[in-house]
DNA sequence: TTCAACCGACTGACCAGTCGGTTTGCAGGG
DNA sequence: CCCTGCAAACCGACTGGTCAGTCGGTTGAA
């Protein structure tokens, strides 16, 4: 049973997520979070020792959710290439559905400078490790490419595409970019493109992922 | 002949670049730029209407320089694939040599939120257009992949690799990542890897770019 | 003499964090 | 079941520091 205390904490985290994602760290006044949450400044500083720590708590929560989500999606799959594909698809889809997540995680401009860079680095590092594992699996034992660099590069590629979408709305829907991304990734890793579960060519981008039951408006996680 | 006025303006821009890159926009006080430049606050506000505009001027200047540099490097080349490779190499090398440039352009955390996102988007857009052209050339007329998305993805990949290097110092030297990046890019675009001018395989990353006369400590531009 | 260029002390707004105070939940004694 | 006491949770007016931007003043070149 969730205590009153937990509820308050979560309310604050939720509102903070929204507000930080909208204005960025520096352009967010703690008082704004206070107002929108219906709580008081005292409550904020009872639960979090500082604005910075509140922000970091938000980041941590969100990145953990995204990671868990991806892991959950690929868990039932065994084919390494499918796992890689599904991971990419889930990441794009989730980031896309939860703009606040995308803004805070990817549009670094929405975040900040200084000590935060280190934290961001840690978070991205965790994702990179996961991706690296997936890539290694998918490549087989003699890949043409260094998995660590590939993982990073790949993360960057996805990030940039999502950011472009965030800022310009294109492509609409983002899913249109997926076949291209997939083709590129496979090519980049030297994976043959003749897989049964998709018809790879990206020039006539058709939504390629009816897969999975859609959890319509499920909150992230 | 450069007037006194111009000199002051450039001094301010130069110092601003340094300081902004080190602390980020918000953690930089105009007074710090004033001190380090030996000028006065009045001078700053004589040349730039606001802190924000000063920052944007810095961004513009740097991105233009990087772009010109890349254009200059690929100008003498005709083979499209070589042009693409050289562009990538130049970008990585330049970003790597000029950390302030990389920090401001790539580590968005060092920059800011709000109206800046738009400007960043414009700047990245310009690069993307150039990259897109190069990719189109290199692919020939029937590429397997959407050039716009590919350009973006590619930019993201490079960015992330450079950022990792900025923050962790790995790989050391960054150039070690280049063969992998190149292999990935070629694969991603469906370009055959049997080019004469490099031996592609990335597992024994050897510095692959003796090319071009090295302009040892040349200032960017 | 004029004015563009520069100087730097000052101000006004903003805002993170504090702190004395109030409310609420609850343990245990009657 | 009520009362009492106590601490955890919450409140919000206030403070202290920071800093972007201003403005009246100075300088030096033409």
List keywords for this structure.
Tetracycline Repressor, domain 2, mainly alpha, 2 domains, homodimer, DNA-binding
Topology:
2 copies of one chain form a homodimer.
Chain A: H1 4-23, H2 30-37, H3 41-47, H4 51-74, H5 80-97, H6 99-105, H7 115-139, H8 147-168, H9 177-189
Helix pairs in contact in A: 1-2, 1-4, 1-6, 4-5, 4-7, 5-7, 5-8, 7-8, 8-9
Chain A binds a DNA duplex (30 and 30 nucleotides) through helix 1, helix 2 and helix 3.
Helix content of chain A: 55-70%
Topology-level CATH name of the largest domain in chain A: Tetracycline Repressor, domain 2
- Assess the beta-strand content of chain A as a share of residues: under 5%
Oligomer: homodimer
Count of individual domains of chain A: 2
Mean pLDDT of chain A: 78
Largest interface: A-B, 54 and 54 residues
Span between termini of chain A? 19 Å
- Low-pLDDT runs of 5+ residues of chain A are 194-221
Question: How would you sum up the major sheet of chain A?
Answer: none
Give the topology string of chain A: H per helix, E per strand.
Answer: HHHHHHHHH
Give a count of the beta strands of chain A, DSSP E runs of length 2 or more: 0
Shape of chain A: elongated
The CATH architecture of the largest domain in chain A is Orthogonal Bundle
Q: Kindly name the structural category of chain A.
A: mainly alpha
Number of helices of chain A: 9
Gyration radius of chain A, rounded:
19 Å
What's the CATH C level of the largest domain in chain A?
Answer: Mainly Alpha
């Amino acid at each position: 049973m969730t205590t009153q205390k937990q509820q308050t904490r979560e309310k604050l985290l939720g509102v903070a997520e929204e507000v930080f994602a909208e204005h960025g760290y520096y352009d967010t006044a703690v008082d704004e979070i206070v107002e929108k949450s219906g709580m008081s400044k005292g409550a904020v500083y009872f639960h979090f020792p500082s604005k910075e720590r509140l922000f970091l708590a938000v980041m941590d929560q969100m990145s953990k959710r995204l990671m868990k989500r991806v892991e959950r999606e690929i868990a039932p799959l065994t084919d390494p290439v499918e796992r890689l594909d599904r991971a990419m698809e889930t990441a794009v889809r989730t980031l896309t559905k939860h703009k606040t997540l995308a803004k805070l995680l990817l549009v670094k401009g929405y975040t900040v400078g200084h000590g935060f860079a280190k934290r961001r680095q840690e978070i991205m590092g965790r994702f990179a490790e996961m991706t690296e594992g997936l890539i290694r699996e998918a490549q087989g034992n003699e890949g043409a490419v260094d998995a660590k660099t590939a993982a990073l590069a790949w993360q960057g590629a996805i990030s940039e595409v999502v950011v472009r979408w965030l800022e310009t709305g294109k492509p609409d829907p983002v899913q249109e970019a997926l076949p291209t991304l997939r083709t590129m990734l496979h090519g980049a890793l030297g994976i043959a493109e003749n897989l049964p579960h998709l018809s790879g060519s990206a020039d006539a981008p058709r939504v390629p992922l009816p897969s999975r039951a859609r959890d319509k408006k499920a909150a992230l996680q």
